[in-house]
Amino acid sequence: MKTFALNTLALSVSLALVGTANASDFADMDAVTLRLAHVVNEQDGFHIAATKFEELVEERTDGKVDIEIYPNASLGDERTLLEGMQIGTVDMGVITNGPVANFVEEMAVFELPFLFPSPEAAYGVLDGDIGQELLDKLSEVNLKGLAYAERGFRNLTNSERAVNAPEDIDGLRIRVMENPVYVDTFRELGANAVPMAWTEALTAMQQGTIDGQENPVNVIHSFSLDETQNYMTLSRHTYAPAIFVMGMPVWNQLPEAAQMVLTEAAQEAAEHERQVNAEMKAEQLADLREAGMEINDAPDIKAFQNAVMPVYEKYGEQFGDYLPRIQEALNP
Hints:
Layout: H1 2-24, E1 32-37, H2 45-60, E2 65-70, H3 78-87, E3 92-96, H4 97-100, H5 119-126, H6 129-137, E4 143-158, E5 173-176, H7 180-188, E6 192-195, H8 198-207, E7 212-215, H9 217-222, E8 231-247, H10 248-251, H11 256-290, E9 294-296, H12 301-307, H13 309-315, H14 322-330
Parallel strand pairs: 1-2, 1-3, 5-6, 5-7, 8-9
Antiparallel strand pairs: 3-8, 4-7, 4-8
Signal peptide: 1-23
Protein name: TRAP transporter substrate-binding protein
Organism: Halomonas llamarensis
Protein backbone atom coordinates (compact mmCIF):
# COMPACT_ATOMS: atom_id res chain seq x y z
CA MET A 1 0.00 0.00 0.00
CA LYS A 2 2.88 2.34 0.87
CA THR A 3 4.51 1.63 -2.51
CA PHE A 4 1.22 2.42 -4.28
CA ALA A 5 0.95 5.71 -2.38
CA LEU A 6 4.48 6.68 -3.32
CA ASN A 7 3.87 5.80 -6.94
CA THR A 8 0.67 7.85 -6.93
CA LEU A 9 2.54 10.79 -5.41
CA ALA A 10 5.28 10.46 -8.02
CA LEU A 11 2.68 10.43 -10.79
CA SER A 12 1.00 13.53 -9.36
CA VAL A 13 4.32 15.36 -9.19
CA SER A 14 5.13 14.23 -12.72
CA LEU A 15 1.78 15.51 -14.04
CA ALA A 16 2.26 18.79 -12.22
CA LEU A 17 5.69 19.18 -13.78
CA VAL A 18 4.24 18.48 -17.21
CA GLY A 19 1.61 21.15 -16.60
CA THR A 20 4.26 23.61 -15.45
CA ALA A 21 6.41 22.76 -18.46
CA ASN A 22 3.50 23.46 -20.78
CA ALA A 23 2.86 26.77 -19.05
CA SER A 24 6.54 27.67 -19.29
CA ASP A 25 6.35 27.21 -23.06
CA PHE A 26 4.89 30.69 -23.10
CA ALA A 27 7.90 32.23 -21.37
CA ASP A 28 9.80 32.25 -24.66
CA MET A 29 6.79 33.07 -26.80
CA ASP A 30 6.49 36.50 -28.36
CA ALA A 31 3.34 38.17 -27.12
CA VAL A 32 0.51 38.22 -29.64
CA THR A 33 -2.83 40.02 -29.78
CA LEU A 34 -5.76 38.28 -31.46
CA ARG A 35 -8.76 40.32 -32.54
CA LEU A 36 -11.96 38.38 -31.90
CA ALA A 37 -15.01 39.86 -33.65
CA HIS A 38 -18.73 39.22 -33.53
CA VAL A 39 -21.78 41.07 -34.84
CA VAL A 40 -24.00 41.32 -31.77
CA ASN A 41 -24.04 43.47 -28.65
CA GLU A 42 -22.46 43.06 -25.24
CA GLN A 43 -25.61 41.55 -23.72
CA ASP A 44 -25.68 38.69 -26.22
CA GLY A 45 -24.56 35.10 -25.66
CA PHE A 46 -21.81 35.50 -28.25
CA HIS A 47 -20.22 38.20 -26.11
CA ILE A 48 -20.58 36.05 -23.01
CA ALA A 49 -18.74 33.26 -24.82
CA ALA A 50 -16.10 35.66 -26.13
CA THR A 51 -15.36 37.20 -22.73
CA LYS A 52 -15.08 33.78 -21.08
CA PHE A 53 -12.70 32.73 -23.87
CA GLU A 54 -10.63 35.88 -23.36
CA GLU A 55 -10.36 35.21 -19.63
CA LEU A 56 -9.30 31.57 -20.08
CA VAL A 57 -6.76 32.21 -22.83
CA GLU A 58 -5.03 35.12 -21.13
CA GLU A 59 -4.85 33.22 -17.83
CA ARG A 60 -3.49 30.00 -19.36
CA THR A 61 -0.88 31.68 -21.56
CA ASP A 62 0.36 33.99 -18.79
CA GLY A 63 -0.88 36.91 -20.86
CA LYS A 64 1.22 36.05 -23.89
CA VAL A 65 -1.93 35.63 -25.98
CA ASP A 66 -4.07 38.73 -25.57
CA ILE A 67 -7.64 38.65 -26.86
CA GLU A 68 -9.27 41.91 -27.98
CA ILE A 69 -13.02 41.66 -28.53
CA TYR A 70 -14.76 43.70 -31.23
CA PRO A 71 -18.58 43.46 -30.81
CA ASN A 72 -21.45 45.09 -32.70
CA ALA A 73 -20.21 44.27 -36.21
CA SER A 74 -17.48 46.88 -35.76
CA LEU A 75 -15.21 44.89 -38.10
CA GLY A 76 -17.97 43.92 -40.53
CA ASP A 77 -20.87 41.50 -40.97
CA GLU A 78 -20.34 37.77 -40.53
CA ARG A 79 -19.49 36.99 -44.14
CA THR A 80 -17.00 39.88 -44.18
CA LEU A 81 -15.42 38.57 -40.97
CA LEU A 82 -15.00 35.07 -42.41
CA GLU A 83 -13.48 36.42 -45.60
CA GLY A 84 -11.14 38.54 -43.50
CA MET A 85 -10.05 35.48 -41.53
CA GLN A 86 -9.24 33.64 -44.75
CA ILE A 87 -6.79 36.31 -45.84
CA GLY A 88 -5.49 37.25 -42.39
CA THR A 89 -7.05 40.69 -41.90
CA VAL A 90 -9.31 39.38 -39.08
CA ASP A 91 -7.94 36.88 -36.57
CA MET A 92 -11.00 35.09 -35.25
CA GLY A 93 -14.64 35.38 -34.29
CA VAL A 94 -17.77 33.83 -32.89
CA ILE A 95 -19.84 33.35 -36.03
CA THR A 96 -23.35 32.04 -36.57
CA ASN A 97 -23.37 28.65 -38.28
CA GLY A 98 -25.53 29.83 -41.19
CA PRO A 99 -22.93 32.14 -42.76
CA VAL A 100 -20.19 29.57 -42.10
CA ALA A 101 -22.17 27.08 -44.16
CA ASN A 102 -21.73 29.37 -47.17
CA PHE A 103 -18.05 28.34 -47.04
CA VAL A 104 -18.52 24.63 -46.16
CA GLU A 105 -22.03 23.68 -47.23
CA GLU A 106 -22.16 20.50 -45.14
CA MET A 107 -22.24 22.69 -42.01
CA ALA A 108 -25.82 23.59 -42.92
CA VAL A 109 -26.95 20.05 -42.08
CA PHE A 110 -27.22 21.10 -38.42
CA GLU A 111 -29.82 23.69 -39.32
CA LEU A 112 -32.32 21.52 -41.12
CA PRO A 113 -35.69 22.39 -39.58
CA PHE A 114 -36.80 20.43 -36.54
CA LEU A 115 -33.72 18.16 -36.68
CA PHE A 116 -32.79 18.34 -32.99
CA PRO A 117 -35.45 17.67 -30.34
CA SER A 118 -33.53 19.34 -27.51
CA PRO A 119 -30.36 21.33 -26.79
CA GLU A 120 -28.80 18.28 -25.15
CA ALA A 121 -29.36 16.22 -28.30
CA ALA A 122 -27.63 18.92 -30.34
CA TYR A 123 -24.67 19.09 -27.95
CA GLY A 124 -24.15 15.34 -28.20
CA VAL A 125 -23.78 15.55 -31.99
CA LEU A 126 -21.81 18.80 -32.11
CA ASP A 127 -19.30 17.80 -29.45
CA GLY A 128 -18.88 14.31 -30.90
CA ASP A 129 -17.24 12.83 -33.96
CA ILE A 130 -19.65 14.33 -36.50
CA GLY A 131 -19.20 17.84 -35.17
CA GLN A 132 -15.42 17.50 -35.10
CA GLU A 133 -15.31 16.20 -38.68
CA LEU A 134 -17.15 19.26 -39.88
CA LEU A 135 -14.96 21.63 -37.87
CA ASP A 136 -11.96 19.99 -39.52
CA LYS A 137 -13.45 20.56 -42.99
CA LEU A 138 -13.13 24.30 -42.47
CA SER A 139 -9.39 23.95 -43.03
CA GLU A 140 -10.21 23.24 -46.69
CA VAL A 141 -11.31 26.89 -47.01
CA ASN A 142 -8.45 28.37 -44.98
CA LEU A 143 -10.42 28.53 -41.71
CA LYS A 144 -9.88 26.76 -38.40
CA GLY A 145 -12.91 25.62 -36.42
CA LEU A 146 -12.27 25.46 -32.68
CA ALA A 147 -15.59 24.66 -31.00
CA TYR A 148 -19.36 25.05 -31.24
CA ALA A 149 -20.80 27.88 -29.25
CA GLU A 150 -24.53 28.50 -29.41
CA ARG A 151 -27.02 30.70 -31.13
CA GLY A 152 -29.76 28.35 -29.95
CA PHE A 153 -33.24 27.29 -30.96
CA ARG A 154 -34.66 29.88 -33.29
CA ASN A 155 -38.17 31.30 -32.92
CA LEU A 156 -40.35 33.48 -35.12
CA THR A 157 -41.35 37.05 -34.35
CA ASN A 158 -43.42 39.46 -36.42
CA SER A 159 -45.23 42.77 -36.21
CA GLU A 160 -48.47 41.76 -37.93
CA ARG A 161 -50.32 38.87 -36.28
CA ALA A 162 -50.17 35.90 -33.96
CA VAL A 163 -48.79 32.76 -35.59
CA ASN A 164 -49.87 29.28 -34.52
CA ALA A 165 -49.62 27.27 -37.75
CA PRO A 166 -48.01 27.62 -41.20
CA GLU A 167 -51.05 29.26 -42.75
CA ASP A 168 -50.61 32.19 -40.33
CA ILE A 169 -47.20 32.94 -41.88
CA ASP A 170 -48.53 33.18 -45.41
CA GLY A 171 -47.27 36.36 -47.08
CA LEU A 172 -45.29 37.71 -44.15
CA ARG A 173 -41.94 39.26 -45.10
CA ILE A 174 -39.50 37.42 -42.84
CA ARG A 175 -35.80 38.18 -42.62
CA VAL A 176 -33.66 35.06 -42.65
CA MET A 177 -29.91 34.52 -42.63
CA GLU A 178 -28.12 34.47 -45.96
CA ASN A 179 -28.31 30.69 -46.17
CA PRO A 180 -30.37 28.62 -48.63
CA VAL A 181 -31.72 26.18 -46.03
CA TYR A 182 -33.28 29.06 -44.09
CA VAL A 183 -34.63 30.67 -47.23
CA ASP A 184 -36.27 27.47 -48.44
CA THR A 185 -37.60 26.58 -44.98
CA PHE A 186 -39.54 29.82 -44.73
CA ARG A 187 -40.69 29.73 -48.33
CA GLU A 188 -42.19 26.29 -47.64
CA LEU A 189 -43.95 27.83 -44.66
CA GLY A 190 -45.50 30.42 -46.97
CA ALA A 191 -43.40 33.42 -46.02
CA ASN A 192 -41.73 35.90 -48.31
CA ALA A 193 -38.23 34.96 -47.09
CA VAL A 194 -35.82 37.90 -47.27
CA PRO A 195 -32.14 36.98 -46.76
CA MET A 196 -30.08 39.83 -45.32
CA ALA A 197 -27.32 40.60 -42.83
CA TRP A 198 -28.44 41.13 -39.23
CA THR A 199 -27.33 44.75 -39.10
CA GLU A 200 -29.55 45.51 -42.11
CA ALA A 201 -32.44 43.56 -40.60
CA LEU A 202 -32.58 45.77 -37.51
CA THR A 203 -33.07 48.84 -39.69
CA ALA A 204 -35.58 47.05 -41.91
CA MET A 205 -37.73 46.12 -38.91
CA GLN A 206 -37.68 49.70 -37.64
CA GLN A 207 -38.68 51.01 -41.06
CA GLY A 208 -41.33 48.32 -41.58
CA THR A 209 -39.82 47.03 -44.82
CA ILE A 210 -39.90 43.53 -43.31
CA ASP A 211 -42.56 42.12 -41.00
CA GLY A 212 -40.50 39.76 -38.92
CA GLN A 213 -37.43 37.67 -38.29
CA GLU A 214 -36.41 34.45 -36.57
CA ASN A 215 -33.83 34.13 -33.80
CA PRO A 216 -33.34 32.60 -30.37
CA VAL A 217 -34.92 34.18 -27.31
CA ASN A 218 -31.60 35.64 -26.16
CA VAL A 219 -31.22 37.63 -29.39
CA ILE A 220 -34.84 38.81 -29.36
CA HIS A 221 -34.32 40.00 -25.79
CA SER A 222 -30.85 41.53 -26.10
CA PHE A 223 -31.86 43.57 -29.15
CA SER A 224 -35.20 44.65 -27.59
CA LEU A 225 -37.13 43.38 -30.60
CA ASP A 226 -40.34 43.87 -28.62
CA GLU A 227 -40.05 47.51 -29.75
CA THR A 228 -40.80 46.53 -33.37
CA GLN A 229 -42.20 42.99 -33.06
CA ASN A 230 -45.53 42.43 -31.36
CA TYR A 231 -45.74 38.63 -31.64
CA MET A 232 -43.41 35.74 -30.88
CA THR A 233 -44.02 32.09 -31.67
CA LEU A 234 -41.82 29.58 -29.82
CA SER A 235 -41.53 27.49 -32.94
CA ARG A 236 -38.05 26.18 -32.07
CA HIS A 237 -37.82 25.42 -35.77
CA THR A 238 -34.04 25.26 -36.00
CA TYR A 239 -31.19 24.73 -33.59
CA ALA A 240 -28.41 27.05 -34.70
CA PRO A 241 -24.87 26.49 -33.52
CA ALA A 242 -22.25 29.21 -33.64
CA ILE A 243 -18.58 28.57 -34.17
CA PHE A 244 -15.39 29.79 -32.58
CA VAL A 245 -13.46 30.10 -35.82
CA MET A 246 -10.02 31.42 -36.71
CA GLY A 247 -8.24 32.17 -39.93
CA MET A 248 -5.63 29.58 -40.87
CA PRO A 249 -3.04 32.31 -41.56
CA VAL A 250 -2.94 33.33 -37.89
CA TRP A 251 -3.51 29.78 -36.57
CA ASN A 252 -0.46 28.50 -38.43
CA GLN A 253 1.74 31.20 -36.89
CA LEU A 254 0.96 30.13 -33.33
CA PRO A 255 3.04 27.59 -31.38
CA GLU A 256 1.41 24.26 -30.62
CA ALA A 257 0.99 25.08 -26.93
CA ALA A 258 -1.00 28.20 -27.80
CA GLN A 259 -3.12 26.26 -30.29
CA MET A 260 -3.97 23.75 -27.58
CA VAL A 261 -4.98 26.48 -25.15
CA LEU A 262 -7.17 28.19 -27.75
CA THR A 263 -8.95 24.94 -28.62
CA GLU A 264 -9.61 23.97 -25.01
CA ALA A 265 -10.64 27.48 -24.01
CA ALA A 266 -13.07 27.71 -26.93
CA GLN A 267 -14.81 24.49 -25.85
CA GLU A 268 -15.03 25.60 -22.23
CA ALA A 269 -16.31 29.05 -23.23
CA ALA A 270 -18.90 27.44 -25.51
CA GLU A 271 -20.18 25.22 -22.70
CA HIS A 272 -20.27 28.23 -20.38
CA GLU A 273 -22.38 30.17 -22.88
CA ARG A 274 -24.80 27.26 -23.29
CA GLN A 275 -25.33 27.13 -19.53
CA VAL A 276 -25.86 30.88 -19.24
CA ASN A 277 -28.35 30.84 -22.13
CA ALA A 278 -30.39 28.12 -20.43
CA GLU A 279 -30.40 29.96 -17.10
CA MET A 280 -31.42 33.28 -18.65
CA LYS A 281 -34.18 32.10 -20.99
CA ALA A 282 -37.12 32.11 -18.53
CA GLU A 283 -36.22 35.56 -17.27
CA GLN A 284 -35.87 36.90 -20.81
CA LEU A 285 -39.29 35.55 -21.83
CA ALA A 286 -40.83 37.15 -18.74
CA ASP A 287 -39.22 40.49 -19.63
CA LEU A 288 -40.56 40.33 -23.20
CA ARG A 289 -44.08 39.50 -22.00
CA GLU A 290 -43.94 42.37 -19.54
CA ALA A 291 -42.87 44.66 -22.37
CA GLY A 292 -46.05 43.75 -24.21
CA MET A 293 -44.96 41.02 -26.60
CA GLU A 294 -47.60 38.35 -27.17
CA ILE A 295 -45.87 34.94 -26.94
CA ASN A 296 -47.32 31.66 -28.20
CA ASP A 297 -45.40 28.92 -26.39
CA ALA A 298 -47.41 25.98 -27.77
CA PRO A 299 -47.82 26.35 -31.56
CA ASP A 300 -48.84 23.47 -33.84
CA ILE A 301 -45.34 22.02 -34.23
CA LYS A 302 -46.58 18.96 -36.13
CA ALA A 303 -48.10 21.17 -38.82
CA PHE A 304 -44.81 23.04 -39.16
CA GLN A 305 -42.84 19.78 -39.38
CA ASN A 306 -45.10 18.50 -42.16
CA ALA A 307 -44.83 21.75 -44.09
CA VAL A 308 -41.02 21.68 -44.23
CA MET A 309 -40.59 18.08 -45.41
CA PRO A 310 -39.70 19.27 -48.94
CA VAL A 311 -36.59 20.90 -47.44
CA TYR A 312 -35.33 17.45 -46.42
CA GLU A 313 -36.12 16.09 -49.88
CA LYS A 314 -34.20 18.93 -51.51
CA TYR A 315 -31.13 19.03 -49.28
CA GLY A 316 -30.80 15.56 -47.75
CA GLU A 317 -28.41 14.16 -50.37
CA GLN A 318 -26.42 17.40 -50.53
CA PHE A 319 -24.98 16.70 -47.09
CA GLY A 320 -23.60 13.28 -48.03
CA ASP A 321 -23.91 10.82 -45.16
CA TYR A 322 -24.05 13.49 -42.45
CA LEU A 323 -27.85 13.63 -42.23
CA PRO A 324 -28.39 9.86 -41.82
CA ARG A 325 -25.49 9.69 -39.36
CA ILE A 326 -27.00 12.48 -37.26
CA GLN A 327 -30.43 10.86 -37.39
CA GLU A 328 -28.89 7.55 -36.30
CA ALA A 329 -27.06 9.27 -33.44
CA LEU A 330 -30.31 10.88 -32.32
CA ASN A 331 -32.32 7.65 -32.63
CA PRO A 332 -29.91 4.77 -32.02
